[in-house]
């Protein structure tokens, strides 16, 4: 007995095959490519025993007698029918009463709105057999998963925002996060718009944060959504995080409503997708109440289906293992959805944290470490910026010629040499992380970073982390 049965015209076999491949990650899918034996007998048996019919509407399909015959059989056996329109057309005569999902222009992308809509509708009839799997990339394949956005900020970094963006562009960094706080017109650095244009022109992906991190650190209570709106004007960008609610309700329904209201408000400020940020309520003991966080994240995902949802890593727990446990709780809750919901962790640039939290279910990170510290790439540890003198020899063996040449370039100051050393490390780290995730080798990747003894402690305290 199949979960889903695909009805299609032979001329649409390529789209049918894509749909079978996509839906098979969650359900048992049947189509006539599997037929062995008498065609009509097998077709009737499979339709009678399936749980859901998905016909593909196209100009050729609406005139095919076999398509109509299969749909009539489905109606005869009271099998739910969920059509998907792959080419603009009307439904076959007699079947206009079914609401169709639009798959126009779909070429197999897992994050296509139409395929996500179809999977949600199927889920209402047939519960998925397996949890959704992390896609290899999102945003039209421009953001690979897992991903690291290298952040730019005016708060406690060795490079001011404009110089940081120039370094990232020169190095060819593909995913960048910049704070709206630093883009506010009265303090916007001259030339930063042009720099962002250049980054995007060479294929870079720009994500604008709300600016609440900088405002909070500077005790700037005057930073408001209307300032955020002004900061976005004239700024080239691909995604925007909403101006987040920093004091969320402890009531689940109200907390979800706060996040959705922030996203809907900020959609008026930009044509780019606006992504939600979900915070946990603070406690008097300087911790966070995580009781309803997983459920709130799932509800926000279910209602908005955004490209990404952000959480603040610091709010997930006091220690890294507790944070990993919280992230796993969030991912377990999201696994109940019909689609995969990527999660971004704000303020996560430590290599150990990235490895462990990826295994726990996070998909994307951002950090300022590349322009704050000096990386010891042999030990995968972060050191004070001034300690780069002891790791400069590592930069001489960097994969990037930019990093190597920066060491002997008198026009690049100390901060720049350290930054290029760090960028080379994070580029390799991200590449290795993505390779490990795609081949199901995250445990080996983590052991390589943490070492055997630390990895053993991690396995002892979180036995299910790498399962």
TrEMBL record:
Transmembrane segments: none annotated. GO terms for biological process: signal transduction; tRNA modification. Keywords: Receptor. Gene3D superfamilies: Queuine tRNA-ribosyltransferase-like (3.20.20.105), Toll/interleukin-1 receptor homology (TIR) domain (3.40.50.10140). InterPro entries: TGT-like_sf, TIR_dom, Toll_tir_struct_dom_sf. Residues 4-109 form the TIR domain. It comes from the Bacteria. This is Toll/interleukin-1 receptor domain-containing protein.
């Amino acid at each position: 007995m199949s979960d889903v049965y695909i009805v299609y015209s032979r001329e649409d076999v390529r789209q049918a095959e894509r749909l079978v491949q996509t839906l098979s990650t969650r359900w048992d899918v049947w189509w006539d490519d599997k037929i062995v034996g008498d065609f009509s007998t097998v077709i009737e048996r499979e339709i009678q025993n399936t749980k859901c019919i998905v016909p593909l509407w196209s100009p050729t399909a609406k005139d095919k007698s076999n398509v109509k015959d299969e749909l009539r059989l489905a109606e005869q056996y009271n099998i739910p029918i969920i059509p998907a329109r792959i080419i603009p057309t009307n439904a076959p005569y007699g079947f206009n009463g079914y609401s169709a999902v639009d798959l126009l222009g779909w070429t197999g992308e897992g994050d296509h709105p139409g395929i996500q809509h179809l999977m949600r509708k199927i889920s209402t009839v047939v519960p998925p057999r397996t949890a959704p799997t992390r896609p290899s990339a999102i945003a039209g394949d421009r953001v690979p998963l897992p991903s690291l956005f290298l952040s730019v900020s005016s708060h406690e970094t060795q490079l001011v925002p404009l110089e940081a963006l120039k370094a990232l562009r020169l190095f060819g960094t593909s995913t960048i996060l910049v704070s709206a706080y630093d883009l506010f017109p009265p303090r916007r650095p001259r030339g930063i718009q042009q720099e962002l244009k250049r980054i995007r022109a060479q294929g870079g992906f720009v994500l604008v944060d709300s600016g609440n991190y900088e405002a909070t650190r500077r005790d700037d209570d005057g930073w408001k959504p209307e300032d955020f709106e002004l900061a976005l004007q004239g700024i080239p960008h691909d995604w925007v995080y909403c101006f987040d609610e920093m004091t969320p309700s402890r009531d689940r329904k109200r907390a979800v409503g706060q996040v959705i209201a922030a996203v809907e408000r900020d959609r008026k400020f930009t044509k780019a997708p606006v992504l939600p940020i979900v915070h946990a309520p603070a406690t008097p003991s300087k911790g966070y109440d995580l009781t309803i966080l997983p459920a709130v994240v799932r509800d926000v995902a279910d209602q908005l289906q955004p490209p990404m949802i952000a959480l603040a890593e610091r709010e997930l727990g006091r220690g890294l293992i507790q944070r990993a446990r919280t992230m796993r709780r969030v991912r377990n809750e999201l696994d109940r959805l019909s689609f995969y919901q990527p999660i971004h962790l704000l303020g996560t640039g430590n290599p150990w944290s990235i490895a462990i939290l990826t295994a726990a279910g996070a998909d994307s990170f951002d950090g300022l470490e590349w322009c704050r510290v000096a990386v010891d790439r042999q030990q995968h540890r972060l050191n004070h910026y001034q300690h780069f003198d002891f790791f400069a020899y590592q930069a001489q063996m960097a994969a990037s010629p930019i990093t190597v040449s920066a060491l002997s370039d008198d026009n690049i100051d100390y901060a720049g040499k350290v930054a290029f050393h760090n960028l080379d490390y994070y580029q390799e780290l991200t590449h290795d992380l993505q390779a490990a995730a795609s081949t199901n080798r995250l445990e080996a990747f983590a052991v390589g970073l943490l070492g055997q003894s630390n990895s053993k402690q991690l396995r002892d305290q979180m036995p299910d982390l790498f399962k």
